[in-house]
Amino acid sequence: MDTKKVLNQVLAERGMKMPDLAEKLDVHTPNLRNKVSRDAYSFKDFEAMMDVLGCDIQVVTRDTHKVFY
Description:
Elements: H1 3-14, H2 18-25, H3 29-37, H4 43-52, E1 59-60, E2 67-68
């Protein structure tokens, strides 16, 4: 999964930009922008970003397409 692509798509859908997300996460915009551009963030960071953007993360098996919550 290209998390940077997913993040940018969600931001666009929400009509938000990186400074808006940084504000919601209570971090400095340049720090967030650097992390995202270098893909230098953890799953926990990605989870926090998706949470403030009102998104869920799902695990789906590839063969049976079963969704785990």
